[in-house]
Amino acid sequence: MAMILTTAPDGSSVWIDEDTNRVIQAEPGQSTAQSWIDLVGKGLTAVQTYQLNQINVERAKMGLPPIDTSAYTGVGVRVGLAPQTQQLIIYGGLALLAVMVFQGFMKRR
């Protein structure tokens, strides 16, 4: 994994991995030592994520379900709502609907 520091078209400094052509942004106000530490950390996370994705590809070929990579990579990005939050919203919506229906019946009397 060879990283090259170069300048992006917008003028910012970026690190490019020669093997995968992935780009990692460099922060201009950081010290060089901190930049290297961050770069190594991001590089290791990228390698680990790639390896976990390869494991999931192999599991898919064998007909097995994928493993949850968020527990291993530390990235843990979730899109959408947690199941408990979805359930709370559904119950809240049903309660609101019940109140509206009840008020509609009370106005007719």
Description of the structure:
This protein is mainly alpha-helical and 109 residues long. It folds into two domains: 75 residues, no CATH class; 30 residues. The protein has a three-stranded antiparallel beta sheet, with no helix packed on it.
How large is the count of helical segments?
A: 3
* Derived structural class: mainly alpha
Mean pLDDT: 79
Whole-number tally of structural domains: 2
Instruction: Determine Rg (CA atoms, Å).
Output: 25 Å
The tally of strands reads 3
Major β-sheet annotation:
3 strands, antiparallel
Could you give the topology of this structure?
Layout: E1 3-7, E2 13-17, E3 23-25, H1 32-61, H2 70-73, H3 83-108
Antiparallel strand pairs: 1-2, 2-3
Short structural summary:
The chain is 55% helix and 12% strand. The chain is mainly α and 109 residues long. It has two domains: 3-77, no CATH class; 80-109.
Distinctive features:
elongated; about 10% strand; about 110 residues; 2 domains; 3 strands; mainly alpha; three-stranded antiparallel sheet; 3 helices
